[in-house]
Write a structure and sequence with these properties.
9 helices, Glycosyltransferase, alpha/beta, Spore Coat Polysaccharide Biosynthesis Protein SpsA, Chain A, 288 residues
Length: 288
């Protein structure tokens, strides 16, 4: 108990796990990968996984920390987002209540997981009776928008992401509507910075597939480039103004991108911001 357990979901973008797992491997006590028995997405579409991925996983797992959790994660009567929530709940329950249950999507890459673990350990008291004191630990995503020939366009305003909980009673994806503790934790989110075919696969199979006009969104994404991005705005797929503006970094190497972005103070939440958010959450949930 009181271990750091990290969970991933295996789906059509499984190759991204080769970038998502390494940053957490050393400091995680155990890693779980949820895999549907019939390789179906939340929308019921079938996908295939190359045997070479399992070869990589076996070779990479030198400390035998990784286990694959196979189950039936697709219920036809449920919507994509309901299947999303259900699978995340089942995965966290498999990881074991009494531990810190960290869930990371395949396209989310920690910049400093060791620092995040150090922060989590400050709140180990919440693991004693998790059902009495459920909390969520949040960080911030730097959303990667699009690769160009010589660099990366990214959203210049990081967005909140729920990363860990002590009690996984999710109500919507990773949310459980309980107290949130905000931390200065940054992750790269390779959200839509992928090939057009891979982007279409993602948008048509994830939990938000019915929430916006996919063709219209991809048409705009296709038109944005290094020369015109400053003249455009509103890039988010659900509420466009959520990603108001973009910025550019001249590199396509992930390690170099992480270092450069982590060095930008404007991308980190200020101490005052974190204090304000956390004190607000404390009093909001004080008598609940």
């Amino acid at each position: 108990m009181k271990k750091i357990h990290v969970g991933f979901l295996l789906s059509y973008d499984y190759e991204n796990l080769k970038k998502a797992i390494p940053p957490v491997y050393k400091d995680a006590d155990a890693i779980f990968i949820a895999e549907d028995l019939e390789y179906r997405t939340w929308s019921g579409e079938k996908f295939e996984v190359s045997p070479s991925f399992y070869d990589w996983l076996h070779k990479f797992d030198t400390e035998k920390k990784i286990q694959i959790y196979k189950d039936d994660f697709y219920i036809p009567e449920l919507s994509a987002i309901e299947n999303d929530t259900r699978e995340r709940t089942m995965l966290s329950e498999k990881m074991g209540i009494g531990n810190w249950l960290v869930q990371v999507d395949a396209d989310e890459y920690f910049i400093d997981f060791k620092g995040f673990v150090k922060t989590l350990r400050k709140y180990d008291g919440f693991l004693k009776k998790p059902e009495k004191t459920p909390v969520q630990i949040a960080g911030f995503l730097i959303n990667m928008y699009k690769y160009t020939e010589d660099g990366l366009l990214y959203v210049d305003n990081p967005t909140k992401v729920l990363l860990a909980t002590n009690y996984p009673k999710y109500t919507f994806a990773r949310q459980n509507r309980k107290r949130i503790i905000y931390t200065d934790t940054l992750l790269m989110h390779e959200c839509i910075s992928r090939s057009e075919s891979d982007l279409m696969t993602k948008l048509t199979n994830w939990g938000h597939s019915k929430d916006f006009d996919i063709e219209e969104y991809v048409a705009k994404w296709r038109s944005v480039n290094k020369e015109n991005y400053k003249e455009m705005q509103d890039f988010f797929y659900l509420q466009p103004e959520g990603w108001k503006t973009l910025d550019f970094i001249e590199s396509k190497n992930m390690d170099e991108i992480k270092k450069k972005l982590n060095a930008k103070p404007e991308l980190h939440p200020s101490s005052f911001f974190l204090f304000k958010k956390n004190i607000g959450q404390f009093f909001k949930h004080l008598f609940k």
